[in-house]
């Protein structure tokens, strides 16, 4: 088995927020892993036993769940959607702060009351979160699984509601939607593969500790 530990990082907005924390944890990639137009996906670091891979945010959870990466960073939204017992999330990194919410058209007929519906159609990138949420209140959700642009669904008749991430609310507003309920708050988490933690407790535990200390260190 290779001794190298793989850290899976999500390309996109979390990566952009991560630079300072990684530096404080002593992770200095040998090349600029934030260059989104680079074709390169795996980067050595100043630590000969740590390589960084840059993957899509949802795929961070897949790489870590399968042990292809031993540690990773992803949003709590991704963890809720995956709900995988192989993933342990010991640290809240306090970045990527947003929420998973339900939204609907601002023009909904005022006479209708969604709280009384027994079935709803929901467009989302988070089918499991949406299904679980509505099932818990006895509502059957017909899921329309999209990978983006959920905000178009209500006005085009694709679904009554959407379940999506909201931060400032400006995306909803720009598309004539209103947030009606927060399902869960979201921040980014450090995640580790449980089997790797069991079989290599010192190496993986040391990385968790380095991140914990980096989080407590004041940002320069
Ligand atoms: N508006 C936001 N504010 C803060 N954090 C966010 C926001 N949107 C997304 N995030 C966080 O960033 C993560 C990645 O989101 P991002 O939008 O960068 O990727 P994506 O577009 O969903 O990925 P993909 O390219 O695979 O479609 C999300 O899982 C979430 O945890
Ligand atoms: O409430 P707001 O501040 O408007 O943020 C919410 C938006 O942010 C995310 O999209 P992102 O900008 O990451 O683009 P994406 O649709 O490509 O994921 C999310 O999917 C929402 O569309």
Automatic annotation (TrEMBL):
Entry's localization field: Cytoplasm
Keyword Transferase: yes
Gene Ontology molecular function terms on file: ATP binding; ATP phosphoribosyltransferase activity
Alphabetical keyword list: Amino-acid biosynthesis, ATP-binding, Cytoplasm, Glycosyltransferase, Histidine biosynthesis, Nucleotide-binding, Transferase
Tagged with keyword Repeat: no
CDD domains referenced in this protein's UniProt entry, alphabetically: PBP2_HisGs
GO terms of biological process kind: L-histidine biosynthetic process
Pfam families recorded: HisG
EC number: 2.4.2.17
Protein family: Belongs to the ATP phosphoribosyltransferase family. Short subfamily.
NCBIfam families: hisG (TIGR00070)
Domains: entry comment: Lacks the C-terminal regulatory region which is replaced by HisZ.
Described function: Catalyzes the condensation of ATP and 5-phosphoribose 1-diphosphate to form N'-(5'-phosphoribosyl)-ATP (PR-ATP). Has a crucial role in the pathway because the rate of histidine biosynthesis seems to be controlled primarily by regulation of HisG enzymatic activity.
PANTHER family reported for this sequence: ATP PHOSPHORIBOSYLTRANSFERASE, ATP PHOSPHORIBOSYLTRANSFERASE ATP-PRTASE
Annotated protein name in UniProt: ATP phosphoribosyltransferase
């Amino acid at each position: 088995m290779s001794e190298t530990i793989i850290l899976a990082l999500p390309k996109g907005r979390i990566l952009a927020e991560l630079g300072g924390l990684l530096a404080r944890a002593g992770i200095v990639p040998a090349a600029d892993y934030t260059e989104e137009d680079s074709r390169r996906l795996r980067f050595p670091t100043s630590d000969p036993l740590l390589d960084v891979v840059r993957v899509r945010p949802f795929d961070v959870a897949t790489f870590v769940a399968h042990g292809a990466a031993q540690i990773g960073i992803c949003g709590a939204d991704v963890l809720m959607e995956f709900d995988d017992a192989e993933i342990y999330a010991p640290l809240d990194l306090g970045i990527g702060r947003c929420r998973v919410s339900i939204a609907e058209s601002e023009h909904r007929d005022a006479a209708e009351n969604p709280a009384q519906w027994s079935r709803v159609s929901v467009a989302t990138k988070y089918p499991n979160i949406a299904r679980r949420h509505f099932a818990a209140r006895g509502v059957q959700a017909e899921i329309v699984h999209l990978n983006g642009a959920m905000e178009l669904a209500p006005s085009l008749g694709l679904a009554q509601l959407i379940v999506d991430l909201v931060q400032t609310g400006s995306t909803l507003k720009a598309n004539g939607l209103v947030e009606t309920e927060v399902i869960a708050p979201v921040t980014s988490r450090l995640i580790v593969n449980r089997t790797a933690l069991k079989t290599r407790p010192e190496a993986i535990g040391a990385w968790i500790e380095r991140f914990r200390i980096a989080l407590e260190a004041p940002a320069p």
